[in-house]
Amino acid sequence: MANNxxxxxxxxxxxxxxxxGNGGKNLMTAAWVTQxxxxxxxxxxxxxxxxxxxxxxxxNPFFTLSVLGEGQEDVAKICGFKSGRNTDKTQLTACxxxxxxxxxxxxxxxxxxxEVKKVIKEGDHVLFIGEVLSGETGGKKPLIYDAKYYFG
Length: 152
Ligand SMILES: Cc1cc2nc3c(=O)[nH]c(=O)nc-3n(C[C@H](O)[C@H](O)[C@H](O)COP(=O)(O)O)c2cc1C
Known about the structure:
Pnp Oxidase, Chain A; about 15% helix
């Protein structure tokens, strides 16, 4: 659990869409996401080393990053408390595959289409730096992460 001072860091709420290269798809909620470059546009996602998503991103470098919008807290919970190792989260939430057969969340504030360019193992997380190849905006206001809402 984060200390109070760590919880004060402001973040959005995102869902990473990944695929194993054989059609196995997964969706994972992440708050530890930030932009790290503008030329080219690049983002960083910190994924716990033990999560299924970390192993998927090491197998297949392409991923979607759905920026959840206000009112999509339920999506964050569905994709953030069960592992894709034993649950097909694409059946539990409204999603579609518009790019490279990767799942993305319907009605998100934006979706970024990314390719992993660098992988850094740091502490208990793996940092995936992805180049943003293209994207779509949905017109919603992005959802702001509130750790207490999800983790008490
Ligand atoms: C709001 C929210 C934010 C989260 N942020 C992250 C994050 O930034 N990095 C991370 O590794 N896990 C994060 N999690 C936890 C994962 O989403 C969760 O452990 C998930 O079940 C892992 O799925 P997977 O095993 O299918 O990859 C978050 C969960 C919630 C509910």
